[in-house]
């Protein structure tokens, strides 16, 4: 059977240079002369995406051998694993990875011949006997591909020529691609998806393929335009990147946004291509086929591309199925499904929901591993994919990986990737996320976009991610799917080259144990290099280290992140910045602090600012005694007016009951209460006199008072606006100023409204103020407000509400922690009665 022959035209374009089919086959034939192998001998192809990878692989086939195509970024250790398993005779390598091959060969100890393609020059006078590559028997093994493995060690998948042709012929059957097309190759060829569809299929059809040597949105757009690309195959990350850029432009214009929604309703591809002609032209103007595979595609993204007149067809398969099992026909796309089954295969869904497949696309088996083969291919020839799915009207939908499903003790099954996708939609602050089970509830492991966090001057990373991202997901999620724990990490999650999280590694990753990630040398994880502290700022580092270890009982290392590694909160940061100001005479604002990554960076910053050390004690009394130029609101008329207007409403609609009003003090007081609803401050106002209101101030977050109107009302309602990412120290000093001037302060120390009716942990700000200024704390509890207006509800329900004041807590003889505990306990005990 003929697989490749001279077409009398260009075969590939790489770095703007055309390679004809004749030139390519000449190279293949010359490479074949370098191989002294017999039938079924194995040859490793360890080359980046470039013309030589085609010449190398086809030379193996031309010599009747088996091609072992590997990731050109494999480490020496990973190469050694393949050498020992596959026992190849030769390896094709490049200058970039030659050292790895030499190292692996030395450890391997057996003879393996190395061919460096960068040293090969095809003689000008070399003329092959023919310009064809023929296959003797389609049932012979063509490829040995090692799975990256999301669940364990890589296994060698044996694919025959018949396996590969089953996919190629399925595409040919619906005339999806032909020799007139121009295909862009952006994915690495060591994966079966791009290898078979982007490379082998193009050579078989006689299509032109353009190999992109740089992966960026600009390089991608340029190639699409310059070469009038008609077909592009990518993974969801590629389509998400383009989608984000396109929709960002659309959402800038109210008119275009409305037009987009109109096209969505009309659902006409011809109209959409006309309306969004500019978008199509930006992508070269010639795109007919856009295919997505390798991971699950967000259905909304697929729908948006359809609205733009760009049919993005999602497919599904595995390395073991060559890879395609199903794909969406561009004329019959069903977003949310992975399309129709390819011809000549069978698929069935068994009782537990697993997808089983049988047919010409199913691998011969795992090399050297009959046990593993028997685990996935049963006696009747059905391959067990390990994926859960549904099959309706010949359209397949994939729910998730069977092994990755989380089963909680209540019997609920949860697909973590669905939750991850939902969270991703609502933020650009997260680069990677993995949802896993932790203590019988869900935990999110988050690798944030630290550059974006720095750009937006966010100092309190965990609080920001918790309330602005995870909480927004939790509000609409069913109880069993809520994220109850968040773990922020400083390193990328362990994953495959296609971006799939290797979930079986997560526990070790979090425990800080040695992990061998396929992207990195395992030695990176086994031995943590000691960080050498430059002599010029060693003194500053030691001073900061001593201060932190003494005051916060933590073990400081140079690369320790203050929040993520040392567990310091925003109040601790205020103390540290004040210590630097008092000891070195250097003022670092909380915004400037976002540029400081770790303790060593902080020491360097102090040194570069030229501060001289003087041994000064710093404590909260010192911090709170510093003057602030911020003026307090002069009037509470807005608050008083609202109190007056809503008094009948609270009395009748909520049957508001006020208890313990005799506990309200005439002296300056900090009032702290549980935060049940949006109504809480209004409820408090109903419980105190109008005169008391004039002397009472509230702490409110910038999130709730960010608009000009709300700021105006806040300034006339005695509300002090907090931004924990910018001016927490200043907020504390203003709060101290309120109390020193004989006024009262109302704080809801949970920091946010309850999401489930339960009382949350109290932050210690109020207790620090109480302790250092010797101000009494009066706890108050609110009951029924959550039932009347839980978080997310816009209109309150009729429900009885009670507010109760408790005995004052005096700070004398108590620690800050004890003040917090006593205040919270009073309220909590009352709530559960």
From TrEMBL:
Pfam families: Acyltransferase, AMP-binding, AMP-binding_C_3, PP-binding. The keyword Phosphoprotein applies. The keyword Phosphoprotein applies. SMART domains: PlsC. SUPFAM superfamilies: Acetyl-CoA synthetase-like (SSF56801), ACP-like (SSF47336), Glycerol-3-phosphate (1)-acyltransferase (SSF69593). InterPro entries: ACP-like_sf (IPR036736), AMP-bd_C_sf (IPR045851), AMP-binding_CS (IPR020845), AMP-dep_synth/lig_dom (IPR000873), ANL_N_sf (IPR042099), Plipid/glycerol_acylTrfase (IPR002123), PP-bd_ACP (IPR009081), Ppantetheine_attach_site (IPR006162). It is an enzyme of class 6 (ligase). GO terms for cellular component: membrane. One of its GO terms (molecular function) is long-chain fatty acid-CoA ligase activity. Keywords: Ligase, Phosphopantetheine, Phosphoprotein. It comes from the Bacteria. Residues 534-610 form the Carrier domain. Signal peptide: none annotated. It catalyses: a long-chain fatty acid + ATP + CoA = a long-chain fatty acyl-CoA + AMP + diphosphate. Its EC number is 6.2.1.3. PANTHER family: AMP-DEPENDENT SYNTHETASE_LIGASE DOMAIN-CONTAINING PROTEIN, LONG-CHAIN-FATTY-ACID--COA LIGASE. This is Long-chain-fatty-acid--CoA ligase FadD15.
